[in-house]
């Protein structure tokens, strides 16, 4: 950008350019008599106050009257009178000598720099502030004449001496604060406006960053273009569209209090706590950058603008803490917190610690979020804290899918939630049916879809999706409707047995509807025997556990034998107790909390 190119040019003025010979730098012929800068000050009545100040601080000979090249911005008597009045001094003698000395040195730049050589940007004076042993920075603005630090204008340039040049100025250049440099540089005008808008009667950020309390400050100052990018991202026209308290939080995130952190102090991985309370992390592996709570780093474009109460570094992005991102670009947790009808869900997330999990911006989730009414039904007369935290954790995880799935991405099928089976890493299955709306595990319907968040999407649902049993999937999946009817018709209470934990876990080989269509469903007691022959008790046998030739007894008593691989497209073949072969396993690993289901294409018959 134009601003930065000017800064790069000015950055070398105090080094290479200012050390050139008089013949190269001084097209203006020095006055007769070869006066030094000290001579010019002494012989000009307009500089009598400056001379008195130099004499009082012993700066005449070593710094102004000696050899070498210097550039002096020389305040007039009127400038000194205004300085004394503005600071409550009746005379120069009342100004502390150490302070006066640094103020005077803040008017001196190493090297001879004529007005024509000046351009907009930063140079270092010989002054040393109280925040650091580093030289103070001067901001030169040449857009309309020559102005220094936004407070002092050159009225008579290029008064040439044998050992440098004097530029007469109309105001004393006081020791700059952070605010001085923000006000002086037009590229920080939006930052200044933000500081003013965020200030209150009790917290005035301009006053704070101008003073010494909690100083020194390290300020990462966003440029005007950085603020423009922020406004565009928020879809607003101006700072007036942002609440003052929001601006205050953002601005405090740009300030490190109690430290004058210069560029040489930064290292990759360094973490620093801001005035707002959250941390900034630095990365110098390529260009110097700052990591905030967002996924976009800020480049540090200009470094080490040294002031009397801190140091300023210019950045090309407004840094955003989590506190603000959760409002303007909320995570799933933030989205839930902003919805009054999800307050019970928020309480459950906080109870289990999953609020932090669903606030992770590096992750990607789909969450089916039960309403307050859904939680009230789920809890009944219990309080949330009456339930073990481990149980609530698994129930909540059973509402979460990995990845982002909008309603248009959903289809009638099985997937896995983040809940797990027992102490294993096997995720529980999750059945989605989109034939008539979106119904989950046969019990919970989506009522508010596609609430997008920074790390996924939220679908609001009308029922808490409890942890599934084998019966949950038998009743939820229309492909098992004939099986569900048979289970309910049997004299044996299979629904109660396969919903419970006695003799669990169960491995169920579940015939699909077409399998029942191929037979005449028997009456009792044969029906119960047939259904029992499809269940293996006290075993959660997943597809990876099947081995060729394995033979295991069913709940009915006769064995089921496994053949691997299966014929055709079958995952495996089974031989039932009656000796029927090539019974195809066509889908596997529908995992419930009390067992696992595998779909088969034929009803199996026991030995008797």
Automatic annotation (TrEMBL):
- Signal peptide residues on this chain, from the entry's feature table: 1-21
Matches recorded under SUPFAM superfamilies: FAS1 domain (SSF82153)
- Give the FAS1 domain ranges: 34-173, 175-319, 329-465, 467-604
User: Is-annotated flag, keyword Transferase?
Assistant: no
- InterPro entries xrefs: Adhesion/Biosynth-related, FAS1_dom_sf, FAS1_domain
Q: Which UniProt keywords apply?
A: Signal
Pfam families named in the record: Fasciclin (PF02469)
Q: Tell me the domain of life.
A: Bacteria
Kinase found in the keyword field: no
Task: Give the protein's recorded name.
Answer: Fasciclin domain-containing protein
């Amino acid at each position: 950008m134009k601003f930065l190119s000017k800064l790069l040019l000015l950055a070398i003025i105090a080094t290479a350019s200012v050390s050139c010979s008089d013949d190269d730098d001084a097209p203006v012929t020095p006055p007769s008599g070869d006066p030094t800068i000290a001579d010019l000050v002494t012989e000009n009545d307009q500089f009598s106050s400056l001379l008195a100040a130099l004499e009082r601080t012993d700066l005449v000979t070593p710094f102004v009257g000696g050899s070498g090249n210097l550039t002096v911005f020389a305040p007039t008597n009127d400038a000194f009178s205004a300085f004394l009045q503005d600071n409550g001094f009746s005379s120069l003698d009342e100004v502390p000598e150490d302070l006066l000395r640094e103020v005077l040195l803040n008017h001196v730049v190493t090297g001879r720099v004529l007005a024509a050589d000046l351009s907009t940007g930063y140079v270092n004076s010989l002054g040393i502030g109280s925040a650091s042993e580093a030289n103070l920075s001067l901001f030169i603005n040449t857009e309309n004449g020559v102005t220094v630090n936004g407070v002092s204008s050159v009225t008579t340039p290029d008064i040439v001496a044998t050992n440098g040049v004097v530029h007469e100025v109309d105001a004393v250049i006081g020791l700059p604060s952070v605010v001085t440099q923000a006000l002086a540089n037009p590229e920080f005008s939006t930052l200044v406006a933000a500081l003013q808008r965020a200030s209150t009667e009790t917290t005035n950020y301009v006053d704070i960053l101008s003073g010494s309390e909690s100083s020194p400050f390290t300020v990462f100052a966003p440029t005007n273009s950085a603020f423009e990018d922020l406004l565009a991202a928020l879809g607003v026209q101006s700072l007036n569209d942002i609440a003052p308290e929001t601006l205050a939080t953002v601005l405090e995130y740009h300030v490190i209090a109690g430290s004058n952190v210069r560029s040489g102090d930064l290292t990759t991985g360094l973490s620093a706590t801001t005035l707002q309370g959250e941390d900034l992390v630095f990365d110098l592996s390529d260009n110097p950058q700052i990591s905030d709570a967002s996924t976009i780093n800020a480049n540090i474009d200009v470094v080490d603008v040294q002031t009397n109460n801190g140091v300023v570094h210019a950045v090309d992005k407004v840094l955003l803490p989590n506190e603000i991102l959760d409002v303007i670009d909320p995570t799933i947790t933030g989205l839930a917190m902003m919805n009054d009808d999800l307050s019970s869900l928020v309480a459950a997330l906080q109870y289990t610690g999953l609020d932090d999990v669903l606030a992770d911006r590096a992750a990607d989730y789909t969450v089916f979020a039960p309403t307050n009414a859904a939680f009230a039904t789920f809890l009944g007369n219990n309080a949330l804290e009456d339930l073990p935290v481990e149980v609530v954790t698994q129930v909540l995880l059973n509402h979460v899918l990995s990845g982002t799935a909008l309603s248009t991405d959903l289809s009638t099928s099985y997937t896995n939630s983040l809940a797990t089976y027992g102490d294993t890493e096997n995720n529980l299955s999750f059945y989605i049916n989109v034939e008539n709306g979106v119904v989950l595990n046969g019990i919970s319907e989506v009522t508010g879809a596609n609430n997008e968040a920074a790390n996924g999407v939220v679908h609001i649902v009308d029922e808490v999706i409890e942890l599934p049993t084998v019966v949950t999937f038998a009743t939820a999946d229309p492909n098992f409707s004939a099986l569900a009817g048979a289970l309910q018709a049997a004299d044996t209470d299979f629904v109660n047995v396969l919903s419970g934990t006695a003799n669990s876990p169960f491995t169920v080989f579940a015939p699909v509807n077409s399998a029942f269509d191929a037979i005449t469903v028997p009456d009792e007691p044969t029906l119960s025997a047939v259904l029992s022959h499809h269940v293996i008790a006290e075993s959660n046998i997943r597809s990876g556990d099947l081995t060729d030739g394995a033979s295991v007894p069913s709940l009915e008593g006769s064995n089921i034998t496994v053949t691997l691989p299966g014929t055709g497209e079958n995952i495996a073949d089974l031989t039932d107790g009656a000796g029927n072969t090539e019974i195809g396993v066509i889908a596997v690993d529908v995992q419930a909390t009390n067992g696992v289901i595998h779909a088969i294409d034929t009803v199996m018959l026991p030995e008797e």
